[in-house]
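Tokens help. Our protein:
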Amino acid sequence: MWSIVSQWQRSLYRFRFDSLRGFISLFLVGAALSVAIAACSPGSNTTPTATSPTSPGSSASPVAEQKKDIELTLVAYAVPKAAHDAIIPRFAEQWKKDHGQTVTFKQSYGGSGSQTRAIIDGLEADVVHLAIGADVNKLVKAGFVSEEWTKRVPNNGIVGETVAAIITRDGNPKSIKTFNDLTRDDVKWVTADPKTSGGARWNYFALWNHAIKSGSDEAKAKEFVTKAYQNVAVLAKDARESTDAFVKQGQGDALVNYENEVILAQQKGEKVDYVIPEINLSIDTPTTVIDKYVDKHGTREVAEAFVKFLFTPEAQREFAKVGFRPLGDVAKEKEFVTQFPPVKQLGRIDEYGGWREAQKIFEDGGFFDEIRSKRQK
């Protein structure tokens, strides 16, 4: 670059003594010098960048703004499908009004663990709604989601909340009212196996939470949950199999499931007797954008807007209609106060170390393996 500058200085000297021809020469040299300096300057970039970096949590891509129509892929566990079917058209209408773009959705529903595995194996989701935070942690560990995902939206990313319900036989002939009743010698109950079902891990911690909040120390809580699992008539592979064992095969006196699924079954015309234990656990279902794919697709802006929309009163009412306990002031609305009985002592998984710590119980060699070995004796 410095040799170019010297050339320019010599040209300038000659110009002072030349006429029109010298002026033209200087103009051409100056123009060439400007181009050369620009090319050598740090940070200059003459090639527009179409996409943003793909590292989790990187800044929003402007690509979505350039597209007339946008497609998002929503991957979720099966239960909230009815809510999303009602929420998506409302969001699309609002986005069209605010941005003039048409947003369409590809949707995929299935078991939370299976959906998580599918994303890691290549299913390019923009947004997920999963049954358990442990599944999002797997996506974080695999590099698909930013570590900061809980800080980007309200309620630490928990968009749907429910509690555990104990479903009984018609008329509740064994008078089962609390988790303590599941340890009685005359009671058998059904649940999915926490080793194979992510959702069943909530059932385990509902029992654990009951023991701790009833005054047990850790040793006593271990005895309590061990005794309860010794009374399990069927430890099914997943939630569907556990429901089939209880409903279709007549196994057990009780089935532990989620309140929102019981409400949804009643809305479909099924007769279900159930109790909501007064000492209970908040079963929290998280949502987040998949950072790796929204940056690849250029859909971060609209995907993040959709996730935030799920926390609005408008969306929370749709979740409540299908049995989830709504967040914020929506929970105080008359119809929902009536629908959801109060829980006197509500525990949260964060009290037990969050899913990063809680998950260890179900790993190979963890405490739940001890429970299973005692069941087999």
